[in-house]
Design brief:
Helix content: over 70%
Membrane topology: Multi-pass membrane protein
Shape: elongated
Distance between the termini: 19 Å
Number of domains: 1
Radius of gyration: 17 Å
Organism: Muraenolepis orangiensis
GO biological process, one term: myelination
Keywords: Membrane, Transmembrane, Transmembrane helix
Structural class: mainly alpha
Largest sheet: none
Transmembrane segments: 24-46, 52-76, 88-106, 126-146
Strand content: under 5%
Number of strands: 0
């Protein structure tokens, strides 16, 4: 992988986003975020349930991460330092949003363990994937901050 200190200051474009750190994390973020979105959408939503926030976060982050990845793949950033800072800020906000959604989803899941077992299993899976997405966005935030500072 091309993740040495010399390439950390450059923003990749084209196929470079599939080989450089932290940009290689775009695809797992999309996969785990999409799984959260699908699993939460397939469960029973009780009126007092905060799963609307979880759906907003998963859809919002999925769409924006996809757009962000396309901008980087097409070279729309022109290797300017402002894009490195924006990458850091976006992934920091996404990590914070996913953390808040993961905590509320875990709370709801713990409260519904006596409900329908299939919905409980789907919610457990959604909680696991939500925390995985949170971890990926957090790691991406840290690595984006390092790249921004080395620009």
């Amino acid at each position: 992988m091309a993740s040495n200190a010399a390439t950390m200051g450059n923003l990749p474009s084209g196929n470079g986003i599939c080989t450089t750190i932290p940009d290689i994390l775009y695809l797992p973020e999309l996969v785990f975020g999409g799984l959260v979105w699908i699993l939460v959408a397939s469960t029973l939503v009780v009126p007092a349930n905060p799963q609307g926030w979880v759906m907003f976060v998963s859809v919002f982050c999925f769409v924006l991460t996809f757009i962000w990845m396309v901008v980087f793949a097409c070279g729309g950033h022109h290797n300017k330092p402002g894009w490195a800072a924006a990458d850091f800020v976006y992934h920091g906000i996404a990590a914070f949003f996913y953390l808040s959604a993961s905590v509320s989803l875990a709370r709801v899941t713990m409260e519904m363990k006596d409900e329908v077992f299939q919905n409980y299993q789907l919610d457990i899976s959604a909680v696991v994937f939500s925390y995985m997405a949170t971890l990926l966005y957090f790691i991406h935030t840290i690595l984006s901050a390092i790249r921004w500072k080395s620009f």
